[in-house]
Design a protein that fits this description.
Blueprint lengths: L1 E2 L6 E2 L18 E5 L2 E2 L3 H9 L6 E5 L5 E5 L1
Antiparallel strand pairs: 1-2, 2-3, 3-4, 3-5, 5-6
């Protein structure tokens, strides 16, 4: 994933093989929030996930501008 210059969030450019997210997130989607925290760069994403005590909730904006919540 890399940060975007246009929107808040980070754009999905690839997912790890067999990632539990691969069935929900597609290339070009933008991760805008994780556990309610805004994501500005990949370090934000990593930090929030690492310090999560339980489930992680991703807010995603798809290419068609729709939004979805994904809980892992």
């Amino acid at each position: 994933m890399v940060s975007t210059g246009q929107k808040e969030g980070i754009s999905v450019v690839r997912l790890a093989p067999n990632s539990p997210l691969s069935q929900y997130i597609k290339m070009g989607d933008v991760v805008t929030k994780v556990n309610g925290h805004s994501i500005r760069n990949p370090d934000d994403l990593t930090r929030i996930i690492m310090f999560s005590d339980s489930k992680v909730v991703f807010e995603i904006e798809s290419n068609d501008k729709s939004r979805k919540l994904i809980t892992i």
